[in-house]
């Protein structure tokens, strides 16, 4: 368990009145006061074939909650035996949020099922129990979702019944007033007859025709993708879905969310899975990328840096911007803890440590409790007749932050900062601004965010090798480090090897005899002190000389290209070279030494040596500062003077 810094502030509340254990939560404004409240459904554990009334927790406006009165729900308070999913939507067209609860009932033989729940929001606040308008079927509903499947402008429901209960899956067709008719006519007969088990469901437009199709995540069989004809008739897609990540015979899908991972305007699918053997042990997330025509490919390894590390299973995943950088992150609910992935800004996700946000598992909802625009994670547990409510508020750090010897998770703010992890396997998230991220020892995740961000190894105790192009080759303190939205590298006082990627990078060697490789892109290479080797690679590269000159500080530019590359000279070092800007024409000379008093930069094209001559007349000895290839067609235009 990590004792390092965490990006959360935890508040605990105990609220009397709990019965059983909380299984489902959803955030809605119950009393119409402009603040998000919670509606929850419980079950008994150990399991019982007995129902528990639905409850509400009202936001008190001070970061906490109070138990809502049962009178907030009129017509009798509905009760659940084993709630499995809560679906929100405006089912009767009055502009107020309603709630459907899928309840599969007692989860043991003979699996009798239980009736589902419908609560309609009232204009005066609270709900009316409208469950009596639903079919009186003992459903074993493992999932549900809502969409307008028949194009008539109101929300219909898919009820995902599995084995047990009194019925297979079906649609609830809405008449626009939240009165529903059971229909299985639009579903393939093998699904209705439960010849396969489908444990999660998602309405999603996979073919871009404007109506909602239906993804059914399977239990140890193949997923199904059903194409809607626009009138509520569903047929199998022509393309088969990829196998699950535990294998085709052992993958159980527990949740599915639509998310456009590759930003092509087509909705992709995140499939949440667990293992059948051993049963419900382990969790994996599968990223299914849509081709826009009903076909999907598994690209999980491209968009997720790793699979969840917990031993248990994940029930749900939510998308929310928890570090206030404008990109949606992923938060998963598990009995073993909260699983969180940070979005690097390009929809590639990086997993936080299992205890980075919470050290315990339970039922959660991601919601903005205090109205500041940053979502909190609210966990509701139950003990000794009380709701145990934990509110985790994300902490966005301002200014420079130094971590501990343990694994730290630090979220930076919108301005330039230096975040230092020290020891441990840290996660440093820069946020906005041009940040410097110092992971230190350990296998660190360095996520720059927006701006031009630097992974720095200035504190390393020995030489490192760091590559933005292939971090698997890193050594020293950089070994195990992962980069996202990192544009620049800074080395140590030892002899380092720094390698850029295909973008424009800034590589700073620091002290030591370093080797810098820019790669593709328009790079800037700062050798620093020592005898460095500078390789710009492809692109229009800049080689910067801004440290004290001397015999021990002569760099080799291994691939200077006259038509593309430039050498920058700092006027604090080259004090007599001239004014900032382009080098004067008469300040450059090709030869073995200066030929008049105006010469400052001399290129010996026979040896490849570059000299700085402060006076051009021999009174002050010329100083060698770099070597390049011989016989280049160098001119004054290859040099700029910087402040």
UniProtKB/TrEMBL annotation:
Pfam families, alphabetized: FG-GAP_3 (PF13517), HemolysinCabind (PF00353)
GO MF assignments: calcium ion binding
SUPFAM superfamilies per record: beta-Roll, Integrin alpha N-terminal domain
UniProt cross-references to PROSITE patterns, sorted A to Z: HEMOLYSIN_CALCIUM
Gene3D superfamilies membership: Integrin alpha, N-terminal, Serralysin-like metalloprotease, C-terminal
InterPro entries recorded: FG-GAP, Hemolysin-typ_Ca-bd_CS, Hemolysn_Ca-bd, Integrin_alpha_N, Serralysin-like_metalloprot_C
UniProt keywords, alphabetically: Signal
Protein name: Hemolysin type calcium-binding protein
Organism from which the protein derives: Neorhizobium alkalisoli
């Amino acid at each position: 368990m990590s004792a390092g810094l965490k990006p959360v502030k935890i508040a605990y509340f105990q609220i009397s009145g709990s019965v059983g254990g909380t299984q489902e939560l959803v955030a809605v404004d119950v009393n119409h006061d402009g603040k998000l409240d919670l509606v929850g459904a419980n079950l008994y554990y150990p399991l019982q074939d007995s129902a528990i009334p639905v409850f509400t927790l009202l936001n008190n406006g001070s970061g906490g909650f109070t138990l809502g009165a049962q009178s907030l729900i009129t017509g009798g308070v509905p009760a659940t035996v084993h709630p499995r999913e809560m679906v929100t939507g405006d089912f009767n067209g009055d502009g107020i949020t309603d709630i459907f609860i899928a309840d599969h009932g007692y989860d043991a033989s003979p699996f009798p099922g239980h009736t589902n729940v419908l609560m309609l929001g009232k204009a005066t606040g609270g709900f009316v129990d409208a469950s009596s308008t639903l079919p009186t079927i003992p459903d074993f509903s493992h999932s549900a979702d809502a969409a307008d499947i028949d194009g008539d402008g109101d929300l219909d429901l898919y009820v995902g019944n599995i084995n047990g209960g009194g019925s297979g899956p079906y649609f609830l067709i809405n008449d626009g007033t939240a009165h529903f008719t059971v229909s299985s006519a639009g579903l393939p007969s093998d699904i209705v007859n439960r010849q396969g088990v489908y444990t999660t469901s998602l309405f999603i437009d996979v073919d871009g025709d404007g109506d909602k199709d239906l993804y059914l995540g399977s239990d140890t069989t193949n997923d199904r993708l059903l194409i809607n004809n626009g009138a509520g008739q569903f047929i199998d897609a022509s393309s088969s879905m990829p196998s699950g990540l535990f294998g085709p015979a052992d993958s159980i899908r527990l949740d599915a969310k639509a998310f456009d991972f590759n930003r092509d305007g087509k909705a992709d699918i995140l499939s949440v899975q667990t293992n059948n053997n051993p049963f419900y042990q382990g969790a994996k997330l599968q990223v299914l990328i849509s081709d826009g025509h009903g076909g999907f490919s598994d690209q999980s390894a491209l968009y997720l840096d790793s699979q969840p590390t917990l031993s248990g299973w994940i029930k749900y995943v939510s998308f929310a911007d928890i570090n206030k950088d404008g990109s949606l992150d992923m938060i998963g609910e598990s009995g073993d803890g909260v699983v969180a992935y940070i979005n690097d800004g390009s929809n590639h996700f990086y997993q936080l440590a299992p205890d980075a946000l919470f050290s315990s598992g339970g039922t959660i909802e991601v919601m903005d409790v205090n109205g500041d625009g940053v979502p909190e994670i609210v966990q509701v547990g139950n003990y000794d007749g009380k709701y145990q409510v934990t509110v985790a508020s994300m902490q966005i750090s301002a200014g420079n932050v130094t971590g501990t010897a343990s694994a730290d998770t630090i979220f930076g703010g919108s301005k330039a900062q230096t975040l230092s992890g020290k020891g441990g396997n840290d996660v440093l998230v820069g946020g906005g601004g041009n940040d410097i991220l110092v992971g230190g020892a350990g296998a660190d995740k360095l996520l720059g965010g927006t701006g031009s961000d630097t992974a720095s190894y200035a504190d390393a105790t020995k030489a490192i090798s760091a590559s933005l192009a292939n971090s698997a080759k890193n050594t020293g303190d950089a070994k195990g480090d992962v980069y996202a939205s990192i544009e620049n590298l800074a080395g140590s006082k030892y002899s380092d090897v720094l390698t850029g990627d295909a973008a424009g990078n800034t590589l700073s060697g620091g002290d030591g005899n370093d080797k810098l490789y820019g790669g593709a892109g328009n790079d800037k290479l700062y050798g620093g002190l020592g005898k460095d080797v500078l390789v710009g690679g492809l692109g229009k590269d800049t080689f910067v000389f801004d440290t004290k000159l001397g015999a021990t500080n002569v760099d080799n530019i291994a691939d200077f290209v006259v038509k593309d590359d430039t050498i920058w000279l700092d006027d604090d070092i080259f004090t007599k070279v001239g004014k900032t800007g382009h080098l004067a024409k008469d300040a450059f000379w090709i030869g073995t030494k200066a030929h008049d008093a105006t010469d400052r930069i001399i290129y010996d094209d026979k040896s490849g040596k570059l000299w700085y001559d402060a006076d051009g007349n021999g009174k002050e000895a010329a100083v060698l500062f770099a070597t390049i290839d011989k016989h280049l067609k160098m001119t004054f235009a290859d040099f700029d003077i910087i402040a």
